Every structure is written in structure tokens, then in C-alpha cells.
Automatic annotation (TrEMBL):
Keywords, sorted A to Z: Transferase
Pfam families: Amidase (PF01425)
Domain (Amidase) ranges: 25-456
Record flagged with keyword Metal-binding: no
UniProt GO MF annotations: transferase activity
Domain of life per record: Bacteria
Transmembrane segments: none
Highest classification ranks of the organism: Bacteria, Pseudomonadati, Pseudomonadota, Gammaproteobacteria, Enterobacterales
Database matches in InterPro entries: Amidase, Amidase_dom, AS_sf
Record protein name field: Glutamyl-tRNA amidotransferase
């Protein structure tokens, strides 16, 4: 049989359920890979390997008794350190919460546990998630498995690293401005941000005991990160669906997640925007994504046109919305005590003198971007862009200062991601190819509002036409 750690979650769950493999065997393989690579990669800030083995043993006993163990039966999963786990440290990458142990699970953690997944530990993220890269003041920086001198992207940094290094086949990330899609692109894996409300999020805000431990309620999504599209659909079948704890959650039942990956997309109209009409894009990224786009027309029978949605750069509005969704009072109070131990870019955001007009202007811009996008998507079934404007870059940077010969702000490399958090549309990052130096580049597929199924269908067919699973990062090369 092929290496356990090269096997996708669908196959692993089936093998465990029919008892050709035990959950303990699978978890032991994951732990062995972690022990080998974690000293270099630092994907996990809080491993829970002893508990994982105990959970795997219990699952095997349930199987022996003929009990149902769920859709994710015995499959190892990594959980981002911003997502609450009862009884397991959740630091949010901050000295402030270095010893914080939640007393309840987030909804998605409840659901993957109930479905039989085995949690390997918490994965490293930047402080409170306020960054598109992975380093934080508390832990070693996660390193890109394709080149350990480079960033894996963020903020679901460790989750992307764990997947690419084949420590596990499933991971949970959160995406407030691209944080599932960014590390998926930089690590050469698949990341899916469903439509706003598909996957419920809780707690949206803790109480006064835990200032700052909150989501960006109007922007945040929790989503699956996987090595295959089918595994993302499997995870969505477990974590999607309404919950009364999230006022943004929407009714379920309109998407058959696994069936969506088997649909045909021949004849669909696809728009391709290489740069939104304003973004600086690395020439090699542009070329790789351009070649990948041709697959949809040449091999999948779609009609592809180059077109831009037509909205101006909404970056300033996005940053204001992040501040508006932040517990400014609580975090500014924390900054007075811990400021010298906090990330400089986070401190700068907290010190900015935000005004009511900043926030209302941002809300108005979000409405304008959303209106531009729904009008644009009336003409197209899907939109394709690069996921990111650059390949992976060196560690400990917030972003490159020069892209394609242009001086840029250090967050402009994220230009393609955060607009989809303004609109709430479904979006996925797919591996599009490798640069001349062997670094992964991502392609972003965007669907109409609530048309998650078409994004999954197109992702699955692209994966069949241009497979990526056989590409292994440098740390796994002999």
C-alpha cells in the first residue's frame, strides 16, 4: 500500500472504517512525521500527540464494537491556534494569552470531533491573525516546506505547513482577508473559503475576561485546507450548516458537497482578471496563472474572457473594517501593559486614530465593491485571478516592497484575497504550478454569491486536468 501519509482523507477514513488500517497506525505515522520535521518547520505551536493517540485508541475500540465513528473516522487534523479548543491551549500567537485554555470548543471543532477526526494539535499563526504571514512574538516562525528560508504565508500558516509536509491530510484555517487561501497558495495545497455564513463561527467575541479574543465578525470565515478538492468537500459536509451561536449562519441543505466535485462545467463562462486592473503582479506568477487558465478553455470546455470587475483598490477600506471588527478598547488596554511584547504592525493599527468617518467610508466602499461584483458576475459563472501577487518571499517580512518593478506597500501582495471577504463570495486557492525555482503559485477561483458548488466542481476538474498531488516540497525529497 502507498505511504499512509500520502493517502487522502476520504481513503483513510474508508480504510479505517473497514479496519484495513487502525486509527492508531495513522496517528502514529503522523506523529513520526511531526517528530522528524517539526524541529525545522515549526508548524505546531501546541502539539497534542498524547491525546491524539488516546483518542485514536478509543476510536478503534468503537469500531471493534461496531459503532458509527463518523465521516472523518480516525483522520488526523490540524487546528489553527486562533480557533478555540476546550482543554487545549489557544494562545492566538500572543504573550497575552500564552497560558489561555478555553473551556469550550468552537463550532467547527465540535463538529470535526463528532465526525471522528483526531486533533494532532494547534498550528502557529501570527498574533491574533493580524497578518498575511506566519511569525508571531511567542513561537518559532513556521517555515515553508518548499524552501525553509521563506514564509509559508498566513495567517493559517502552520496549517498550510502541516499539510504540505504531509503531517496530516486535513487542517482547519480561518480567513478574514485571505488567511486560508494565502498559505494554501504559498504551500502548494488547496484552500476553500465558502460563502459567508456557510460555516458558523463561535465565539464571535469572548467576554470582558478575554479582551481581543474575537473574530472579525463581518469578514471572517473558517474553512478547510486540504491536499485534494474531494477532501475539502468532505470537510465541508461536516462543518457546514447553521448554528444559533452565529447570527450570520445560513440554512444548509442546498449543496451536496461531495456530489459537487463530480459535476461537469463544460460551457461555463469564466472571467480572467490577471491584476484587477490595478495590482502589481510578479511576471512569473502572471505567466503561470495564465497557462493554468488556458486549461479551463482548452481541456474543460469553458468560455474564458479577460475582464476586470471594475472596482478601485479597496485596501484602505478593508483595513478600517478590520479595525472596526477589533475589540479596540480591550486591546488598547492590553497594549498599555504588553505593548513591547506585541507585534509592531498590530500596535501600529491599535494606535491609529480611527474615526467614525473612517468606518462609515469603509462600509460604503464594501457596499460598492459588492455591487460591482454581483453585477460583474451576472455575466460570468466564475472568476479566476492569481491567489497572490508574488511567490513566497523571505521570513520575517510583512510583504515585498517591490513587485514587477513597482514600489508597493507591504500588504499589496494580498490584493486578490481580501476583496472576497468584503463580498462574502466563495473562493478557493488551487495549486497552479511551480516557479523556475520550484516554489508553488496559486490560482484563485471565485464563484457567484452562494454558488459554492460550482467553485468545487471547477476545482475538481482542474485538479484532474492538471494534478498537483505528486508534487512534493523540498523537505520530503530524498
Amino acid at each position: 500500500m502507498r505511504d499512509i501519509l500520502d493517502t487522502d482523507a476520504l481513503q483513510l477514513a474508508a480504510l479505517i472504517k473497514c479496519r484495513e488500517l487502525s486509527a492508531v497506525e495513522v496517528v502514529q505515522a503522523s506523529i513520526a512525521r511531526m517528530q522528524l520535521l517539526e524541529p525545522t518547520l515549526h508548524a505546531f505551536c501546541t502539539p497534542t500527540t498524547e491525546q491524539a493517540l488516546a483518542d485514536a485508541q478509543q476510536l478503534d475500540k468503537k469500531l471493534a464494537r461496531g459503532e458509527d465513528v463518523g465521516a472523518l473516522a480516525g483522520v488526523p487534523i490540524a487546528v489553527k491556534d486562533l480557533i478555540s479548543t476546550a482543554g487545549v491551549k489557544t494562545t492566538s500567537g500572543s504573550f497575552i494569552y500564552q497560558d489561555f485554555i478555553p473551556d469550550e470548543d468552537d463550532i467547527v471543532v465540535e463538529r470535526v470531533r463528532q465526525a471522528g477526526a483526531i486533533i494532532l494539535g494547534k498550528t502557529t499563526a501570527p498574533e491574533f491573525g493580524y497578518s498575511g504571514v506566519g511569525h508571531n512574538p511567542l513561537f518559532e516562525s513556521p517555515r515553508n516546506p518548499w524552501n525553509t528560508a521563506l514564509t509559508p504565508g498566513g495567517s493559517s500558516a502552520g496549517s498550510g505547513v502541516a499539510l504540505a509536509a504531509r503531517m496530516c491530510p486535513l487542517a482547519l484555517g480561518s480567513d478574514g482577508g485571505g488567511s486560508v487561501r494565502i498559505p494554501a497558495a504559498h504551500c502548494g495545497v488547496y484552500g476553500f473559503k465558502a460563502s459567508m455564513g456557510r460555516v458558523p463561527l463561535y465565539p464571535g467575541c469572548r467576554d470582558e475576561r478575554y479582551p481581543g479574543v474575537s473574530s472579525w465578525e463581518s469578514l471572517e470565515h473558517i474553512g478547510p485546507m486540504t491536499r485534494s478538492v474531494a477532501d475539502a468537500a468532505l470537510m465541508m459536509s461536516v462543518i457546514a450548516g447553521p448554528d444559533m451561536r452565529d447570527r450570520h449562519s445560513i440554512p444548509g441543505g442546498d449543496v451536496d458537497w461531495l456530489a459537487a466535485t463530480r459535476r461537469n462545467i463544460k460551457g461555463l463562462r469564466i472571467a480572467y482578471s490577471a491584476d484587477w486592473g490595478y495590482a502589481a503582479v510578479d511576471p512569473e506568477v502572471r505567466a503561470i496563472v495564465g497557462r493554468a487558465v488556458s486549461v479551463f478553455e482548452r481541456e474543460l470546455g469553458c468560455i474564458v474572457e479577460e475582464a476586470d470587475p471594475g472596482f478601485p483598490d479597496p485596501r484602505e477600506a478593508f483595513m478600517a473594517l478590520v479595525a472596526m471588527d477589533t475589540d479596540l478598547v480591550g486591546m488598547r488596554r492590553l497594549m498599555e501593559t504588553y505593548g513591547d511584547k506585541m507585534s509592531p504592525h498590530l500596535v501600529a493599527m491599535l494606535r491609529q486614530n480611527w474615526s467614525a468617518e473612517d468606518f462609515t467610508n469603509a462600509i460604503t466602499t464594501r457596499k460598492a465593491v459588492t455591487n460591482s461584483m454581483w453585477r460583474f458576475m451576472q455575466r460570468y459563472d466564475l472568476l479566476i485571478t492569481p491567489t497572490l501577487a508574488t511567490p513566497p518571499f523571505p521570513l520575517y517580512m510583512q510583504g515585498p516592497e517591490i513587485i514587477d518593478g513597482r514600489m508597493v506597500a507591504n500588504n499589496e501582495w494580498l490584493a486578490f484575497c481580501f476583496p472576497l471577504n468584503l463580498t462574502g463570495q466563495p473562493a478557493a486557492s488551487l495549486p497552479a504550478g511551480l516557479t523556475s525555482s520550484g516554489l508553488p503559485v496559486g490560482l484563485q477561483l471565485v464563484g457567484r454569491h452562494l454558488d459554492d458548488a460550482t467553485v468545487l466542481a471547477a476545482s475538481a476538474l482542474f485538479e484532474q486536468a492538471q494534478p498537483w498531488i505528486h508534487h512534493k516540497p523540498a523537505v520530503l525529497q530524498p
